[in-house]
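R.M. (postdoc): so does anyone remember the format we settled on? I'll just put the structure tokens first.
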């Protein structure tokens, strides 16, 4: 089992409404980005972490890495991102060292990813070429047009999609290249693979693996962390 990770930190975190990029905010004493970083950096199967950062924040991230005392296995390379998430991933792909390895792509704003899901995802990607994590939708979903409900969508086939997403290198590179050529933008990497025409396989994840997007997510994040501490203390 060998993979390389593209860890995304090059956004602005506009919806978080904070004075700095949300992945650099503190969550119980550590930067948001350090939670995912710590998990992957100590995974013996992770052969390289490509940390994609805003050019202006590369130095701050380098300093954070230097100070981080977590047990390290995987080397970390900080590279510059682009205007959109998709551009940041594309830049990151050029730093993959070994194209025979699986590439995982993860949002730095998702601190609660756990090892068992990374492993399941990796297995599925090896078998199929493209695998993503997600959870079945719990809420009732309705389609609304001009303020009026036009349809209650059956939940049966609906999943909420998360990261990491894992791919064979050639497939995700070709999918990104085609998307760039066609001017196609997707909200995740799997949608580019779907657009390219290859199947993407679902792996059941955890409802804890939230993305920190708005200020209320920070409150939920602290609750998840204190719950985890309690469990560990048992
Ligand atoms: N991201 C990135 N490069 C971009 C945009 C986003 O690397 N040009 C990263 C973010 O740092 C984040 C992840 O992609 O870890 C998911 O994106 P999102 O939640 O949208 O983060 P932001 O773009 O930072 O937030 P916002 O959209 O509210 O500005
Ligand atoms: Mg964004």
């Amino acid at each position: 089992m060998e993979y390389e990770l593209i860890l995304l930190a090059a956004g602005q975190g506009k919806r978080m409404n904070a004075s700095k990029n949300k992945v650099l905010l503190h969550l119980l004493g550590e930067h948001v980005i350090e939670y995912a970083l710590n998990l992957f950096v100590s995974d013996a199967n992770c052969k390289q972490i490509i940390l994609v950062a805003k050019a202006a924040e590369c130095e701050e991230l380098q300093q954070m890495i230097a100070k981080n005392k977590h047990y390290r296995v995987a080397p970390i390379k900080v590279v510059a991102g682009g205007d959109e998430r998709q551009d940041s991933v594309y830049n990151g792909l050029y730093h993959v060292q070994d194209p025979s390895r699986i590439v995982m792509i993860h949002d730095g704003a998702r601190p609660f990813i756990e090892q068992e899901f990374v492993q399941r995802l990796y297995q599925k990607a090896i078998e199929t070429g493209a695998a993503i994590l997600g959870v079945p939708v719990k809420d009732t979903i309705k389609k609304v047009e001009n303020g009026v409900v036009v349809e209650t969508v059956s939940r049966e086939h609906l999943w909420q999609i998360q990261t990491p997403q894992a791919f064979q290198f050639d497939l995700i590179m070709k999918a990104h290249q085609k998307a760039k050529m066609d001017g196609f933008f997707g909200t995740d990497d799997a949608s580019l693979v779907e657009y390219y025409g290859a199947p993407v396989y679902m792996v059941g994840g955890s409802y804890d693996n939230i993305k920190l997007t708005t200020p209320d997510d920070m409150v939920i994040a602290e609750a998840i962390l204190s719950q985890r501490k309690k469990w560990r203390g048992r």
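R.M.: ...and that's the designed sequence above, right after the tokens. Also worth knowing: Residues 8-15, 22-23, 52, 81-85, 88, 107-109, 211, 213 surround cytidine-5'-triphosphate (ligand 1) (CB under 6 Å). The chain is about 35% helix and 25% strand.
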